[in-house]
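re the bet — no i am not wrong, look at it urself. input seq straight from the record:
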Amino acid sequence: MFLLWQTSQGTSLRLASRPWLISTGEYGGSGPPGKPGAPAAVDAATGGTGPNANTLCGHVDNDPRGCPEFSWAPFWPGGSVQGKVTTASLAKDLKMWARMGHPCGEDFLAGPYLAKHPEFHWQACYLKDIKANPWTLFEAKK
């Protein structure tokens, strides 16, 4: 899946699915089929590793470029706060894997983040710790 949209800064292309496909067991990753495994923090644009705005988790809080298509400054406190994945074989059984927190498993800790980026202290009353919970398999009642 490629996400493409127009902004006042120009056209932005976000590459989303390639790292996800790599990180699932069915596509050669470390997890069992359908369950996300490492590496979830693959930069879709460069192929490098490490959390930034081009990874599935969208770690804009670690990215010196920020996310200009959303008018987010460098190191803006933004990114994914939950993840879900399914495959055709899981979907036929009405199942999916889900995790609250960054899909890569990293925690977002507001205190250390604000100490490192005091320019965002004005958001201190809104920023809360986001702990990554374990991947959990959900299924419909039968």
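see?? Residues 26 and 33 are 5 Å apart (CA to CA). told u. also Residues 10-139 form one domain. so pay up
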